Amino acid sequence: MSRDIYAYRCRLCGHLHYPYRMVCRNCGENAHNEFDPEPLPKSGTLLTFTELYALPAEYEVPKLGLGIVELENGIRITGQLRIDEPRMGMKVRGEVEVVRSEAYEDFHGMVFFEA
Length: 115
Hints:
This protein is an all-beta fold. The chain is about 0% helix and about 50% strand. It contains no helices and eight strands. β1 (about 5-10) and β2 (about 15) form a beta hairpin.
């Protein structure tokens, strides 16, 4: 089953927001929940990245790659990287996967792979 991460489009001016906001940052005129959810695209360009080595015990990996990706629609999103040698400017594709597990609960987020 494929999962999505959603952006939210203002019903009044059409501005796309990610993450969710209470009021449109473009027009500021809408009330709470005057947004329509819209799935984010899963392809984009890696803008920058880092690797973390001092992780909490819940992460059962020696290091964790994180990147900021500009998606095809211009929205920027942070996600985990599963790329051996990431490079700024490279094309990536994302999938919503489990990014962390605790006891009986899984947490999902965007994970990017080389396109």
